[in-house]
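Subject: sequence -> structure tokens, single chain

Hey, anyone have a minute? Need the predicted structure for the following. Not urgent.
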Amino acid sequence: MTLDRVPGGAGSTFELPALLLVDGDKVTSAADELAKVKVTAEIVENLRGPKIVIQKFKNKTGYKKRQGFRSELTKVKVTSIA
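Reply:
Had a minute. Here:
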């Protein structure tokens, strides 16, 4: 799974909030039941996303602007759901 950059290096662990719990046929999204669930994930690597080129142009005025952007990402592996 890939997320926005999470502080920490490769191999470190952190907790994620539970948003939805599926247990067989039972699907739960109630906040009081999700508070009991712990999701632990391990950071696999930090990486950067693909380059996005942003260009602005206005006709007949000589205005051109070019800007690039790469998002900072973290690849994680969910290790336990308890």
